[in-house]
Every structure is written in structure tokens, then in C-alpha cells.
Predict the 3D structure of the following.
Amino acid sequence: DPQLNRQYTFENFVEGDCNRLARSAGYAVAAKPGGTSFNPLMIYGGVGLGKTHLAQAIGNEIKRTLPDKLVLYVSCEKFTQQFVDALKHNNINDFVNFYQAIDVLIMDDVHNFAGKEKTQDFFFHIFNHLHQSGKQLIITSDKAPKDLAGLEERLLSRFKWGLSADLQVPDLETRMAILKNKTYQDGIELGDDVIEYVAHNIDNNVRELEGAMVSLLAQSTLNRKEIDLNLAKQMLKNFVKNSSKEISMEYIQNLVCEYFEVPIDMVKSQTRKREIVQARQISMYLAKAHTKSSLKSIGHFFGGRDHSTVIYACQTVEDLIDTDKKFKGYVADIQKKLKMS
Ligand code: ADP
Ligand code: MG
């Protein structure tokens, strides 16, 4: 299965209070796909907390113990793209048949279905077919079903049928265990003081924790220095400066306006001039992608608009990125600047 990443196993998914329910539900599902009441199993939580890892671990475990089962991992984006392609090339039937034959469907990041009505509608039918045939569905999302804006009610109600389990930010002890596990996998030895120092200071999510470790190793290699507490302190100074700085909506607004040479205050105004609308929509899109702000507060910030306007803006930008090379280039440029900040 090219879609499943073999690195993501239960064995290296470190257990903690933050993930105990989700992990054990995942285990139960892997032992009896389609045969528990955890169908669908919905795993939700913030970015970098292990949703993809856990969902794939379930898939890998099923492949290992029940090799005859057809397991498919697909991200919501990829599914959407496949659906659009199938429509375009007139082979919806093949597409349907393919999905209906699957025993275990892992659909990653369903919050990305927001605003994509046709794709949602289509997924709804596949979901029903699989569920009725006793097939297992595993779904991940960045929010609990009740908080998923922009998804159709009937689809959300299906998501609530089984079990929803969340992944939370791991506590210090679990973060240390994750770091130990990671270094052990990579064959590196680190002092407990270094592990504790890093785990103590990087407390957003697991992805950043791993990023800090990678950065630490890189510095140790580059400077030909042993990894000790001093190096860890030095690394963290750079790491925090480079990656954890929060991007504000104001900053995005300024950057976009500067890029397109439009007056900053116009973005928040009611004007529908094409270039302003474009700057406004891109700003909203970037705010959604790069800040933790809710759709509601993004709409509010950009001129007191409501959350559906934000969803529409994001959709429009995504569509244009797909269809308009020049536009795609603009957005990529701005994003590059954003990351350099
Ligand atoms: P998400 O899909 O929620 O954004 P990922 O599944 O991509 O997050 O996880 C980010 C990184 O953190 C991955 O490299 C993953 O292996 C690692 N990770 C997350 N949770 C754990 C855990 N409990 N134990 C070990 N590694 C973890
Ligand atoms: Mg993921």
C-alpha cells in the first residue's frame, strides 16, 4: 500500500493521558475492523498531535494481522481531487466502485471538506454504503464533529454515530517519553537533562518537538559538538525564533497589501474592486492557514464579515490556485515571505 506509511505504528505511538482513549479505541478497531461500535472512529485534535500517525497505525496493524483486508488511506484533499478528476473524465462509476470495495477506509483531515458540497455529498454516499456493509471507517479532523463548520449536517450526524476520541497536547512526562522513543529509534543517545530541557520548552505539539530534535542533531553535526545542555539551549534560541513565532492577521494583511500595492485600510472596507477583493480573499485564506484564529474571528477582523464569507474566500483562493498558474505564484510568493518573517 503506497498510501500507508509503514513508519506509523502503534509500537512507536507513545501512550499518555493525552491519547489513551483514542489509542485504545484504535487498537480495538484494528483487532476487529467493522466489528465494534466504534464505527466510524473519529480521531480529532490540533495540528501535529498525531492524528495521521494513529490513523495510519490502525491501518498498518490491520494489514499486518488481516492481510486480506483492503485498507485505504486517503486525505480529504486527495479524495476531493480524485472526485473532481473523475467528474472531468467521466469515470465516476469506476471511482464509486473502487471506494465501495474497500474494507477499511481511513479519511484524513475531513475538516477540509468545508465548503466542498459536491464532494461531501459524494463521500456521504460512499460512507453509507461502506457502513451498511459493515466496513470500517476511520476519520480524522482538527475539531470535534460538533465544532466542524462548513460540513453538512447529515454528514456530521454520521460522524457522531461511532466514537469520537480526541488527541490532546501531551504533558511533560509524555513529551519526554516521545523524545526518548524518537532518539532510540534513530540510534542516538541523549542525556536526561537534554531531553527534559527540550520537552520542557517545546510544548505546542509533537511535530515541533520532533522538529526541535532534528534541529539539535543538525547543529551537533554542523558544529561538531556533542549534544549537551549548552547546545540544546543554543538550538532552542534559534528554533523558537524561527518556528514558533505566531503570525498575526494584521501581519498577513500588511504583507498582502504591500505585495499587491493596495492601501491597507481598503481590505477591511466594503469595496468590491477586483484587486481589493483578491487581496482580501488571499488574506483570509492565509489567516486560516497560518493563524489559530477561528473563521468567525477572521471574518470579524477583515471588515466585520461572517464566517461563511471566509469559507467562500478560502474556497475561491483554493480553486484559483488549482486553475490559475499566475495566481498560484502570487500566493506562493506571499507565503514564502510569511515564513521568512
Ligand atoms: P497530525 O496529523 O495530528 O497533524 P501527525 O500524525 O502528523 O499529526 O504527527 C506529527 C508528528 O508527531 C509525526 O511525526 C508523529 O509520528 C509524531 N507523533 C505524534 N504523536 C505521537 C506519539 N504519541 N508518539 C510518538 N510520535 C508521535
Ligand atoms: Mg495529519
About this structure: The longest helix spans residues 206-222. The chain is about 60% helix and 5% strand.
